[in-house]
Amino acid sequence: MDQLKLEHVTQYNQLKGVGTQHPLVSIFDNSNSNPLPNNTRLHFGFYAIFLKAGNCGELKYGRNNYDYDDGTMVFVAPGQVLEVSNTDNYKSTGLTLLFHPDFIKGTALFKNINQYSFFSYDSHEALHLSLKEQEIIKDLFNKLEYELSQSIDKHSKNIISNTIELLLNHCVRFYDRQFITRENINSDILSKFENCLNDYFHSQNAQDSGLPSVGYFADLLHLSPNYFGDLIKKETGKSAQEHIQLKLINLAKERIFDTEKSVSQIAFELGFKYPQHFNRMFKKNTGYTPIEYRNLN
User: Fold this and answer.
1) Residues of the domain holding 170
2) Mean predicted lDDT score pLDDT of the chain
3) Are residues 147 and 37 in the same domain?
4) Same domain, yes or no, for 156 and 239?
5) Are 175 and 291 in a shared domain?
6) Are residues 39 and 121 in the same domain?
7) What's CA 194's distance to the chain center, in Å?
8) Residues contacting 28, CB < 8 A, separation 6+
9) Where in this chain does the record put each HTH araC/xylS-type domain (predicted)?
10) Claim to verify: residue 150 and residue 262 sit in the same structural domain
11) The domain boundary residue, chosen from 165, 181, 197
């Protein structure tokens, strides 16, 4: 598979055969552009937002494939890689927005960009828009296209960056809606997460591998860490890390009463490398050291 490193917005424009109105920002309709080179791995050095229309071929991100349907949005951040795998009858459709990190430096968007966790979602966690939501996004694309077509002045950067930020804020709202409408799927993920937690701490995993990370459980459930974390937070009000810690504390409370085991043994069984770390976490969550809790009860 060919590799293409795209550090600049103009490089992507050249691939697509579209003009460059601004060296750091680009927006265009894919139906008026060339298809991306097939069987190619693209390394991005800038942000990309795609609004797909119709069946737009297949993109691979991480380990998953996704056939993008009408009204699907995909987000790519600098440092990420997309694999392009198109069918023979593939035609470019939909809208594309590109912006380089250098463009938003010094703006409110630059300070907030890391809050948009969906830039790190896997492709099968894409955003699916309703018809009304599509109209809102298309209207914002049109506003950006209009602004880029005007002569650049001292207001251009703020207007463009503010419009991009507004677009991203709408996407946060639409993702919240998507989490709600997929409640049954999310409940199944929550149930599987609880089972994975139980399996981990009731096996040798904790002793052999230490404390598990959020990424470990996300991987087991075939989700990206950010999507998994956002899903858990929206469904329960607690972060995935808080769930792991709550499980640890509940198990620790149970095992503290086994007086045949020292606190250090219990700490190692739960995956702590150093007993003092276990002691600190236990006291922070209960108000007592493990020994005090054992004696109290």
Assistant:
1) 2-181
2) 88
3) yes
4) no
5) no
6) yes
7) 21
8) 13, 16, 18, 95, 96, 145
9) 195-296
10) no
11) 181
201 and 102 fall within a common domain: no
If phi > 0 it is left, if psi is from -120 to 50 it is alpha, else beta; for residue 8 that is beta
Whether 14 and 77 share a structural domain: yes
Whole-number Å distance between alpha carbons of 15 and 62? 23
Show Cβ contacts of residue 292 under 8 Å, excluding neighbours closer than 6 positions: none
Tell me the residue type at 185: I
| Chosen domain end from 149, 181, 213 | 181
Quick count: other Cβ atoms within 10 Å of Cβ 141? 21
Q: What is the CATH number of the domain that holds 49?
A: 2.60.120
- Alpha-carbon distance of 231 to 114, in angstroms, equals 17
pLDDT tens-digit profile of 189-248? Answer: 888 999 999 999 888 888 889 999 999 999 999 999 999 999 999 888 899 999 999 999
289: pLDDT strictly greater than 50:
yes
pLDDT digits (tens, 9 = 90+) for 69-110: 558 899 999 999 888 876 666 677 789 999 999 999 999 999
Asked if 67 and 191 sit in the same domain, the reply is no
Strands 25-29 and 58-61: unpaired
What's this model's pTM, rounded to 2 decimal places?
0.75
- pLDDT tens-digit readout, 231-244: 999 888 899 999 99
23 and 115 Cβ atoms separated by less than 8 Å: no
The tally of domains found in the chain comes to 2
Tokens standing for residue 205: 């995993």
Cα–Cα nearest to 193, from 220, 169, 166, 212: 220
